[in-house]
Amino acid sequence: MGRLDGRVAFVTGAGRGIGAATALRMAEEGARVALVDIDVEGCQQVAQELERLGAQCLVLPCNVSNNTMVEEAVEKTVSQFGRLDILVNNAGIIRDNLLFKMSEEDWDAVMAVHLKGAFLCSRAAQKHMVQQRYGRIISLSSTSALGNRGQANYSTAKAGLQGFTRTLAIELGPFGITTNAVAPGFIDTEMTRSSARRQGLDPEEVIAEASKRIPVRRVGQPRDVANVICFLASEEAGFVNGQIIYVSGGPAPRS
Ligand code: NAP
C-alpha cells in the first residue's frame, strides 16, 4: 500500500530537478502523475522512469503562465485519470540581477511563471477538487522569500506564494482541500548549477562553500524536497493547512 494509492497528481516543471523527483516519489507511493512542463523531452525521460516502476503517467506540454494551456492540461488529466487530487506548483525560473540592472522583462518573466503560473494552475485544479471535496495544493516557495541579494524578482515571487498559500488555505479548507508550501534552501539542481556557471563559478565549488554554511553540512537533493511534498500530499497531512515548511538543512545564520 502506497500513501498515494488511487490519487492523481499534476506536477508542473516535472521535466527535471525537484519536479522530476516529486513525480517519481509520488509514483513510488502509488499515484498516477501528469508530468507538466514546457520541456517535453525532459518529461518523456521522467515518464520512462515512472513506467519502469509500473506507474501510469501522462506527459503534458504546457507553459504554466498560459491559461489556455493550463486549462487544457488539467482537463486532459481529468479525462485520462478521472480525477485530480494533488497539484504541485513547482515550475520555476530565475532571472537574477541587482536591482539597478534588472530589466522589466526579467521582472515580468519571473512573476509570470511563479505567481501567475501558480494562480492559473490552482484555479483550474480547484474546480475538480471542490467537486470531489478533496485536494492537496503544494507550492514551491524558497528561503529567498526572506530576502536574497540579486533576486528582487524571485524573492518577491516566492514571498508572494506564501501569501497565496495562506489565502487558499482559508478559502479552500472548507472543501477538504489543504494548501501548503515548501521553502527549500540550496538544492542541487540545474537551476543552481546553471546559476553558478552564469557567474563564472564552478558548481562543485559553490556546493562545497554552501555546505559549510548549512547546519547539516550538505546541500539538499531534489529528493529531500520531494519527500516533504509527498507527506503534504498524503491523507496523513490533512490537518496541516496554510503552512510554509522550510526544507533547508537548518536555519540560515543571522546576518
Ligand atoms: P529546474 O531544475 O530549473 O527545473 C524547473 C523546471 O520548470 C524545468 O523543467 C523548466 O523547464 C520548467 N519550467 C520553467 N518555466 C516553465 C513554465 N513557464 N511552464 C512550465 N514549466 C516551466 O528548477 P528546480 O531547481 O528543480 O526548482 C523547482 C522549483 O523549486 C522552482 O519553483 C524553484 O524556484 C524552487 N526552488 C528551487 C531551489 C533550488 O535550490 N534548486 C530552492 C528553492 C526553491 P525548462 O528547462 O524548459 O526551463
Automatic annotation (TrEMBL):
Highest taxon, organism lineage: Bacteria
Domain Ketoreductase, residue spans: 7-185
Pfam families on file: adh_short_C2
InterPro entries in alphabetical order: KR_dom, NAD(P)-bd_dom_sf, Sc_DH/Rdtase_CS, SDR_fam
Keyword match Membrane: no
UniProt keyword Oxidoreductase, yes or no: yes
GO biological process: fatty acid elongation
Single Gene Ontology MF annotation: oxidoreductase activity, acting on the CH-OH group of donors, NAD or NADP as acceptor
Keywords assigned by UniProt, alphabetized: NADP, Oxidoreductase
Family (UniProt): Belongs to the short-chain dehydrogenases/reductases (SDR) family.
Protein name (database record): Beta-ketoacyl-ACP reductase
Species this chain originates from: Thermogemmatispora tikiterensis
